Structure to design on (193 residues):
């Protein structure tokens, strides 16, 4: 069984977007280099960022996201992002009306059920859970193995928190990866058990 990784780009003060969901310059690092990160031609990062992010992306089998993110991205137009095989959407509303039945998208009620479904689909590959409310729920439930952050040099002051509404203390190990790229600091922490 693969590990569960909580992941997102984050501001220095711990936000993944402003209150209105605007990420501002949070993703500036994804276009601040000269090494293509994927086939889109849009994502170009530094070599250090590429060497860290690309192998990670290649190991992801399933992404877990909340219904809010799914709706904001318009379901990624029916294609899971970044070449990921499946997306598990945590929602109390079920499959959106009119949504074409696509095998890559699974609509599940509750974080525990979402993680179980994602692990089933991922096999020994990584299950990634988007930071924010859904990621915070997974961390609070003791399901997260690792926290990855791409820290961008921006201060929001307020907004959508990386750890969502987590209101209890959770200890992480010392960072085992600290990589400086262009306009980003990549960090990786194991969750202390």
């Amino acid at each position: 069984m693969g590990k569960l990784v909580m992941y997102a780009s984050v501001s220095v003060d711990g936000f993944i977007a402003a209150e209105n969901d605007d990420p501002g310059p949070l993703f500036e690092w994804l276009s601040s280099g000269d090494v293509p990160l994927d086939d889109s031609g849009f994502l170009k990062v530094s070599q250090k960022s590429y060497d860290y992010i690309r192998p990670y992306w290649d190991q992801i089998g399933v992404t877990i996201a909340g219904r809010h993110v799914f709706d904001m991205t318009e379901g990624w137009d029916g294609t899971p992002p970044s070449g990921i095989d499946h997306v598990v959407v945590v929602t109390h509303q079920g499959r959106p009306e009119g949504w074409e039945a696509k095998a890559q998208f699974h609509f599940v009620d509750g974080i525990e059920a979402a993680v179980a479904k994602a692990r089933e689909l991922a096999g020994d590959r990584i299950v990634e859970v988007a930071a924010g409310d859904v990621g915070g729920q997974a961390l609070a439930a003791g399901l997260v193995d690792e926290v990855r952050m791409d820290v961008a040099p921006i201060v929001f002051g307020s907004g959508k928190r990386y750890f969502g509404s987590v209101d209890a203390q959770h200890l992480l190990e010392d960072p085992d990866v600290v990589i400086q790229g262009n306009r980003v600091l990549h960090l990786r922490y194991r969750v202390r058990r």
Q: What stands out?
A: Residues 59 and 125 are 6 Å apart (CA to CA). The first strand starts at residue 4 and ends at 11.
